[in-house]
Each structure stands twice: as structure tokens, then as C-alpha cells.
Specification:
There is one protein chain. By secondary structure, this protein is α/β, with parallel strands linked by helices. 40% of the residues lie in helices and 16% in strands. The chain has 22 helices and 15 strands. Strands 7-8-12-15-14-13-11 form a seven-stranded mixed barrel. The chain has a six-stranded mixed beta sheet with strand order 3-2-1-4-5-6, with helices on both faces. A hairpin with a 2-residue loop joins strand 9 and strand 10. Helix 17 (568-576) runs antiparallel to helix 18 and helix 18 packs antiparallel against helix 19 (605-625). The protein starts with 6 loop residues before the first strand and ends with a helix.
Length: 690
């Protein structure tokens, strides 16, 4: 909709002192347009550069002054040409006046939109602010800035100022920089202006928010502190993971002469009867089916609706606890912001009083939340007070989702103290490791933190958008090499390692690396080399090792149709998991039965006993899952008779050790139950064979 369009004017300082970072400015501004083409293609933008030898703007022609400012692009709907303009910014030769550039940008927005679209007009200034601005003809510079700020507020304009300092500020006049910083702070105080100071190309890349998401409430209603006390609150998402854009299919079937073609691909599905392929089944005659083993169980929407959990919408306070009782790494998902209902004085006072009391007592609150009616899950989380430092902004709360018991993953690792003394680090090794970690700290004391979360973009997404823009212009273009700025995010900082070379050398000296060769052995060779043993642990260890080697030599394949000799258990599981036909379950069971019998009848049967036991165990588990007990029970009866005839006491011993009895009634509800004495008879005869 037109009222949701943003009107943005970029004010870019291209003077000589900015030349070293203009390449990064081109990248971040181009990325801004690229994202708008995807998410906000109706937005409008203009570009103004300051610090050029030439002058080209309307105010110069109308009232004079405003020198060294060029309107590089008038305000228009974002397109690919705008990207070309931003990727080829001119290199200025004079020091410009950023305050004049702000006035020129405001003039462009006022003339284009007059007093409409309030709240959707924005200026974005990128400069180092190290050069003096011209003196005002009337009053002081501060008075001039306040006059501009009043006009900016009246027109409903916002401004974002990115001040690039770092190495650019070295050698500059500190008095002038402090004066400019003071003038920019007036904008922040008098208008809706956000001023950010950056000192590196990485920070510049992340400081400019290239995509703006309009905040939307996830809940509006009562925070129930008690049955007699309820506070009106609004809940917003404070943070949200930025994901890849949803890509759609594109059709080239539309005529090239049709300017209004959407090129969208529309998919229509038809469900036809198995008995009559020409008959289309209407929606009212269709019902969803869900697989349960080899069967498909139909469940109607009415049945689903009857068993759904339907909690009532609302937020309830469960209680308070010490902040130390909530472990930080238990926080899940996104962060939410609780604020009092805007304009409700009583709600604002209630939220503020509770938040300040919680802060003073170091307490947090536990809430039960159902954001909307019909939501099928309940959220339990912790409410943390957020005390405002600005008198014009009321206090609020942060809300983090907590896990249920099933969601908690406690990973226990053995202590180094349990290792033998020969494997524990000595004093010199411990000291070298500690110093290595301390020197590679991203936030060293006395220095600026590296890779600040607020100013570090996602390198994967940045690379994706740049490649997407390239492919839109050159469909056959290859993937370009990774950008140097993104390399600084994804790869170790070479300067940091060069400065600490002595530390890394010391670490390398104290920790000698030795090659640990491991020879791959086939499963059959591994089983032959291991001594036979009746101990259950030894048997299980041998089989486990054999399966490990087999899994390395033969990764699980796709579309397996026959059980092989090397990894029969994995092949059996792969066939059982296939769902493109109901015959695969029967095929897998028959194949495994034949494989077990082949292993028992092989001349080298002593070497195959372990593998046969594993196959029997896999077959038993598969038959229970698929509710097909009879093939397994029939096979076990046959094996019992076969062992009696051949005198295979060692194999009987393995079966008893693994407790591979018949499938019982409790294990399979659909089993055609054989008399219980079959199981007892098998077990007793096997024990007699021992």
C-alpha cells in the first residue's frame, strides 16, 4: 500500500577524507537497495553527495549557497539503475558541509511529498564529521541545528546518522570533532534521530539497517497478576532471526510484450480415484490418512478438532524467583518486549512499580502465556525487568521462553582429573594455553570490542544478496569470490595472529602433534582377528566394532532393494523404511530371513554367528515395529530345530545371552498368539544345549 512506502534520501559524504571507506559505503548502500527490491519494491529513494567540486541542487538555484552538493539521483521508485549509481560514487575533492546536505535532503522530501506521508520520510547521513561546518548568518550553529530540527519534526521526518571514525579520526582536529558531535546530539535530543559511531568497515556494513520490519504486537490484553489484579499490556517481538527470502518459481511463458505479467507459477492439484483414473475426487469426499506401520489410518478434521488442546488466550503470573535461579543458556527462541498499554497511565505506573521492585530485589517472574485464541501450545517463560534510563520512555519487561523438561539437553563430560597423569597438561602447557586464549579475546580490556553483535551482519545472507543481484543481471555469472570485508568476519584476523605470534609459537612448542594412524579393516577380517568369547560384553563389543567399520566402508545408500553381505542390518533397515510401496516390508523380512539362514549354513559358520545374531535382533525389532510377529516367530522355531539337529550349542548360547525369544503378546497387539509353552520350550531347550 502507498501509505506503507518509505521515502528515503541518502546523504553521502564523498570528500577526500572519506575516500578510504567509500568502497564499503558503496557496498552497504547497494545492499540497502537490493533488499528493498526484494522486500519493499515500492519504496522510493534519492541520493545526495557532498564534497564534490561540482554543485547541482535546487536550493543553489533558488536561494544560492549550498555549494559542493550534488543531487546524484532524484527521488524515485527503487530499481536496478539505482544500484548502478550507488556502486559508482564520485570521489570528491573538497571538504563538504554535512549540515547543508541535511537541508538539501529535507528540501527534496518536502517538495516531493509536501505534508503527506508523515512518519515514512527518512534521511540517512553517512559522514566522518571531522571538518567544520559554515557559521550561521543568524545566531549560533546550535540555534541553526535546532531550527532545522523543529522543521524536521513538523514534517514527520526521521534521520539516521552514521559517523565513520576509527582511523579516519586520527590526526583530525579534536575541537572540531567535539563540536560536530555536539551538533549531531541536538538532532538526537530534538528529533527522532539515531546516531551511530563506527570505526571499521565491518561495523559500517552492519550499522545501516538494510531491512526494516514494522513491529507488530503478538498479544494485547491482560497480564493477570492475581484474580483481582490485571494490567493491560502489549507484547512485541524484540528480536527475530533473519532468514533467507522465500524464493518463488518464475514462468517465462508470459509474452515479453506484456508489461503487467506477474510471471507467477500457479499449481493446481487433482485427486483421482484408483478405480477410475478419469474421475476427480472432490474435497468433501477426501480425508487425510496417516501411516501406522504398513497401514494408513484415516482421521477426519472433526476427530482432530475433538482431541486438540485449546487453551484460553491470556498471560498469567505463576510466581517470582531469584534471578540466579534462571540459567542464561536455558533461554529459547526470540526475545519479547512487554510494555504497558500506550496512553494507559494506571497500567504504566503498575508496570513501572513492579519492574523497579523486581530490580531492587533481584527477582524475575515466571509467566504462562497463550498469545492468541486457538493456539495449541502454552509458553512458559521468565520476565526480566528493563528499567528505562530515559524519562520519556516508560519501564518495560523482557520475556524469554524457558524449556520444558523434555527440551533440556544436559551433556555430561568427564573431568580431566579422571585421565592418567601422562595425559594431563603440565604447568607450562596450562600457562601457554591460558595465555593463548587471553590474547585472542574479542573484547580485550582497554580496546574496542571486535565483531560487535549489533554491528556485525550475517555473512551468509550478505553474500547471498550480492550473488542474487549479480545473477539477476548476468544469469550465467559464476559465484564471485568472497568479499574482503566478509572474510574478516568468517576468517581469523591475520593482524591479531601476527601480533601474537610469540604466543602461538609457545603453544605449538608445548603441545607436540603426533600422527595417530588408523588402519581400516573389513568387518569380516575384524571378526576373524578377535578371539571368540562367551562373555556378553566381549560379544557385544566385537559386533559393535564390526558394524562401525562396515558403516565407514559403506555409507547408507538410497533406494536399496536387496540385502547385501557387508552390511545386512543397515540394508534391512533401509528397505523397511521405504514407503513408496507397501510390499517393501514383506520383501525386507523375507530377505533378512534368507540372509540369516545363509549365514547359519555357511561353511565358516563360526565366523558368521555374531552377524547372524545381529540380523536376528534387527529382524525382531523390525517385526515388532511393523506388527508382523509371525515371520519372526516361525523363523525362531525353525532355528531351534536346526540347532538341535546340528548341535550348534555356541549359537544357542549367543541367542540366550541376547534374550532373543519369541515376540510376546505385550510386544505385538496384532500377533496371532502361539501358546506360551513354545517360548518356554525354546528357552529350556537352549539352556539344555549349553
Amino acid at each position: 500500500m502507498a501509505r506503507n512506502k518509505e521515502k528515503l534520501v541518502l546523504l553521502l559524504d564523498v570528500g577526500p577524507s572519506m575516500h578510504s571507506v567509500l568502497t564499503e559505503v558503496e557496498k552497504v548502500c547497494s545492499m540497502l537497495v537490493e533488499k528493498k527490491l526484494i522486500y519493499s519494491k515500492n519504496d522510493e529513494m534519492g541520493v545526495v553527495v557532498v564534497g564534490t567540486e561540482e554543485t547541482n541542487n535546487d536550493l543553489k538555484k533558488e536561494v544560492g549557497g549550498y555549494d559542493n552538493i550534488v543531487v546524484l539521483q532524484d527521488i524515485k521508485v527503487v530499481d536496478g539503475d539505482l544500484i548502478d549509481t550507488l556502486q559508482k560514487l564520485p570521489r570528491g575533492t573538497v571538504n563538504g558541509d554535512f549540515l547543508d546536505a541535511i537541508v538539501v535532503g529535507m528540501d527534496m522530501l518536502i517538495k516531493r511529498y509536501k505534508d503527506i506521508y508523515k512518519g515514512k520520510k527518512r534521511l540517512c547521513l553517512i559522514t566522518n564529521a571531522i571538518h567544520p561546518i559554515k557559521d550561521s548568518l543568524e545566531g549560533s550553529k546550535e540555534d541553526q541545528v535546532r531550527t532545522i530540527a523543529v522543521q524536521m519534526t513538523a514534517q514527520g521526518m526521521k534521520m539516521e546518522s552514521l559517523v565513520v571514525r576509527g582511523s579516519l579520526g586520527q590526526g583530525a582536529n579534536k575541537r572540531i570533532m567535539d563540536e560536530n558531535d555536539r551538533l549531531l546530539s541536538i538532532f538526537s535530543e530534538e528529533t527522532r534521530t539515531r546516531t551511530v559511531y563506527v570505526d571499521s568497515p565491518i561495523s559500517l556494513l552492519g550499522a545501516l539497517k538494510t531491512r526494516r520490519v514494522t513491529p507488530v504486537t503478538v498479544f494485547r490484553g491482560d497480564l493477570e497478576v492475581s484474580p483481582k489484579m490485571k494490567i493491560k499490556v502489549w507484547v512485541y517481538k524484540k528480536t527475530q532471526e533473519e532468514r533467507f527470502p522465500t524464493l518463488k518459481k518464475y514462468s517465462e511463458k508470459a509474452p515479453s510484450t506484456n508489461k503487467f505479467a506477474t510471471h507467477q507459477v500457479k499449481l493446481d492439484y487433482e485427486y483421482k480415484s484408483i478405480d477410475d483414473s478419469s474421475k476427480v475426487v472432490p474435497p468433501e469426499q477426501r480425508i487425510k490418512g496417516y501411516r501406522y506401520g504398513p497401514q494408513v489410518v484415516p482421521i477426519s478434521p472433526a476427530e482432530w478438532d475433538a482431541v486438540k488442546f485449546k487453551p484460553e488466550k491470556g498471560i498469567k503470573l505463576l510466581g517470582f524467583t531469584d534471578a540466579s535461579n534462571i540459567i542464561r543458556h536455558y533461554y529459547m527462541k526470540d526475545v519479547y518486549l512487554f510494555i504497558a498499554e500506550p496512553g494507559n497511565t494506571r497500567a504504566i505506573l503498575a508496570v513501572s512499580s513492579i519492574a523497579r521492585a523486581m530490580k531492587e530485589m533481584n527477582k524475575v517472574a515466571i509467566l504462562r502465556c497463550v498469545w492468541r485464541q486457538g493456539q495449541q501450545n502454552v509458553v512458559v517463560g521468565v520476565l526480566t525487568p528493563n528499567i528505562s534510563q530515559n524519562d520519556r520512555i516508560p519501564d518495560s519487561f523482557y520475556f524469554n521462553v524457558l524449556p520444558f523438561v523434555e527440551d533440556v539437553r544436559e551433556y555430561q563430560f568427564p573431568s580431566f582429573n579422571s585421565l592418567p597423569a601422562s595425559l594431563q597438561p603440565n604447568e607450562q602447557q596450562q600457562k601457554a594455553a591460558d595465555e593463548f586464549v587471553q590474547r585472542l579475546d574479542l573484547a580485550p580490556s582497554g580496546k574496542e570490542e571486535m565483531l560487535l553483535p549489533d554491528f556485525t551482519p550475517n555473512p551468509v545472507l550478505e553474500r547471498f544478496y550480492r550473488h542474487l543481484e549479480l545473477k539477476s543481471r548476468q544469469p550465467d555469472a559464476a559465484v564471485p569470490p568472497i568479499d574482503d570485508t566478509l572474510k574478516r568476519i568468517t576468517e581469523p584476523d591475520p593482524n591479531l595472529f601476527s601480533e601474537n605470534k610469540s604466543v602461538t609459537d609457545a603453544l605449538r612448542k608445548h603441545f607436540e602433534l603426533k600422527e595417530n594412524p588408523k588402519l581400516k579393516k573389513s568387518a569380516r577380517r575384524l571378526l576373524r582377528e578377535k578371539p571368540s568369547s562367551s562373555n556378553e560384553e566381549d560379544v557385544n563389543a566385537d559386533v559393535s566394532d564390526a558394524q562401525t567399520v562396515s558403516s565407514i566402508e559403506k555409507p547408507p545408500g538410497v533406494g536399496i532393494e536387496k540385502i547385501g553381505d557387508l552390511t545386512p542390518v543397515q540394508d534391512f533397515e533401509a528397505i523397511m523404511s521405504r514407503r513408496d510401496s507397501s510390499d517393501w516390508v514383506r520383501t525386507a523380512i523375507m530377505e533378512m530371513r534368507d540372509k540369516i539362514l545363509d549365514l547359519l549354513s555357511d561353511p565358516h559358520k563360526e565366523d558368521n554367528h555374531l552377524k547372524a545374531v545381529e540380523c536376528i535382533a534387527a529382524l525382531r525389532e523390525g517385526c515388532i515395529l511393523e506388527q508382523e510377529p509371525e515371520p519372526y516367530n516361525n523363523l525362531m522355531r525353525y532355528i531351534y530345530r536346526y540347532c538341535q539337529e546340528k548341535g550348534m550349542s555356541s549359537f544357542s548360547q549367543l541367542l540366550v545371552a541376547r534374550e532373543l525369544t519369541l515376540i510376546s503378546k505385550s510386544e505385538s497387539a496384532n500377533r496371532f498368539h502361539a501358546p506360551m509353552f513354545f517360548e518356554c520350550l525354546l528357552l529350556s531347550l537352549l539352556l539344555d544345549a549349553i
